[in-house]
Amino acid sequence: MATKASRAAARLMISPAVLLLLGWMIVPLSLTVYFSFLRYNLLMPGDNPFVGWENYQWFVTDTSFTAAMVNTLLLVGGVLLITVLGGILFALLLDQPMWGQGVIRIMVIAPFFVMPTVSGLVWKNMFMNPVNGIFGHIAQGLGMAPIDFFSQVPLLSIIGIVSWQWLPFATLILLTALQSLDQEQLEAAEMDGASWPARFWFIMLPHLARAITVVILIQTIFLLSVFAEILVTTNGGPGTATTNLTYLIYVSSLLQYDVGMGSAGGVIAIILANIVAIFLMRMIGKNLDA
Amino acid sequence: MGRITLNNVGKSFGAVEVIPPLDLTIEDGEFVVFVGPSGCGKSTLLRLIAGLEDVSGGQIRIDGADATGLPPARRGLAMVFQSYALYPHMSVRKNIAFPLRMAGMDKAEQDRRVAEAARVLNLTDYLDRRPGQLSGGQRQRVAIGRAIVREPAAFLFDEPLSNLDAALRVGMRLEISELHERLKTTMVYVTHDQVEAMTMADKIVVLNAGRIEQVGSPLDLYRRPRNVFVAGFIGSPRMNLITGPEAARHGAHTIGIRPEHIRVSDDETCIWKGEVGVSEHLGSDTYFHIHMAGRDEPLTVRAGGDVDLYHGDTICLKPDEAHIHRFDEKGHRIE
Ligand SMILES: Nc1ncnc2c1ncn2[C@@H]1O[C@H](COP(=O)(O)OP(=O)(O)O)[C@@H](O)[C@H]1O
Ligand SMILES: [Mg+2]
Hints:
The complex is a heterodimer.
Chain A lengths: L3 H33 L17 H8 L1 H32 L6 H9 L6 H12 L6 H8 L7 H4 L1 H26 L3 H9 L4 H28 L4 H6 L11 H11 L3 H31 L1
Helix pairs in contact in A: 1-13, 2-13, 3-8, 3-10, 5-8, 8-10, 9-10, 10-13, 12-13
Chain B lengths: L3 E10 L2 E11 L4 E5 L6 H9 L6 E6 L2 E2 L10 E4 L11 H11 L4 H14 L15 H13 L5 E5 L7 H18 L2 E6 L2 H7 L2 E6 L2 E6 L1 H6 L4 H6 L6 E4 L1 H5 L4 E4 L4 E4 L6 E10 L3 E7 L7 E6 L9 E6 L5 E3 L5 E2 L1
Parallel strand pairs in B: 3-8, 3-9, 6-7, 7-8
Antiparallel strand pairs in B: 1-2, 1-4, 4-5, 9-10, 11-12, 12-18, 13-17, 14-15, 14-17, 15-16, 18-19
Helix pairs in contact in B: 2-3, 2-4
The complex binds adenosine-5'-diphosphate and magnesium ion.
Family (chain B): Belongs to the ABC transporter superfamily.
Keywords (chain B): ATP-binding, Nucleotide-binding, Transport
Organism (chain B): Rhodovulum euryhalinum
């Protein structure tokens, strides 16, 4: 399959699929770019004049844009930190031989299968509600004032919910990686006088490096577009305390009916996501080579 | 120093008794080989000594001190694993220095010892490579290097050569023997290959189903196997074991005779008669597989390289009576 003729034939054969995919991607993308240069507000019908960079200018200089950028970073960073550390911890625990291992593993994986809207609502109403939630009851039982999570620590609450959803994913990947570690290496390290922390640091963690990179890459892509959890719990508030970039685009295009502005936000989001992707690809590429 | 004594040491995994209680003494500076068929408990016994498994009963003493409950690191032993168990993300230098680093030795002393080990093992040019970039033999040497820098009381080897190809295996066998000559440290070596056992050991421990069948020097075992199992296991090609009337004639249940103690003769003083089957010409020697009436297994006979016999020839065999081993019904040697 490596002759010139066969390569040409291969290219010809896959070209319809490639063209279809390209069209699938290019058409919406060009429309978005096109709209982002128009003054196009559904509340102001009429012609949609070309306004150049105006939409971008407005979007970027809006105070909620800065807030959204900071919130997005905090959200992604916070969730990554919690899920990677928590995932390593859970993987180490689940790797121990114990009674009922299979059932426990399935239970740990379970949150991953709960839909984001559902988990958002469950956390909002059953756990974090200051009157009816379990945390509220516990606080009252201990004689403390219950915390109103979504008004006192809104972003932290969202980070908590999203972490709860992604922890199983991280755990699963890291557990699989941990189980592929050659036991003789650990025994050799034990003979070499390495204590448990030393074995973890010098043997297990380097072995997990690749899996951790994979977790970070995949999660980042999904975490940049967290939306449902915010919509059903805080609606981006109070103020803009939990508005991330995705939510801000939703607000400008669907709540303020400003298609041009929304498109501009979309293009900015695409560019940011690509920067992150390139950065991560470099990182993962380096790690996968080693 | 490195004298290891096992008193009544046994091991069970759950209800399965892998090693019934046994006693064994390994003298300081000795090269001891545990040999036996696969699955007989050699690795388990070695891991008990190393401390990687807990004993189910009995006591392990190292240099007189009770080491039964000590963690592996505090027993002062170093182990070389079959899979080498090198740390893949560390350079050769870091691999070899790892035990020293764990012991908190100062950097200059670490470097000195690593350089010395690398020189001895011909690894100086590879110190900055990763294990993945080395050949099997070089990896094996790194694993040995990691063991010798610690200057342990004894080395434990678990089938260290079984992942190498035949030529390399012979070379490494010599290197390990030379290392033992130079260091004079106790070595405990596990293998299923009786050639390795015969060529390297000061003392061989033959294991079968977790039991010690015989302990002794290679030639002891070869010349005076204590039972049928040892007789059949030590020596290559295997000793011929014969039961039935021929054995009864010698007053035994089973008699054994090695291929080199049977002579091929064409005179009329025929004791055994047979038909030549497959012959293996090694140049210096030829091994004939002789089919005899009333025996399923062919008899192996060694002859000189210049004996011309062909498939289907009928020949006469003359066993050397002085070298016939006799065993009773239970398989024990009859003197
Ligand atoms: N961790 C274990 N759990 C249960 N059985 C084991 C374990 N390790 C070894 N065994 C059993 O003990 C026996 C001896 O194993 P091993 O010492 O590895 O044999 P060898 O090294 O002589 O080939 C085998 O039958 C094996 O199945
Ligand atoms: Mg073994």
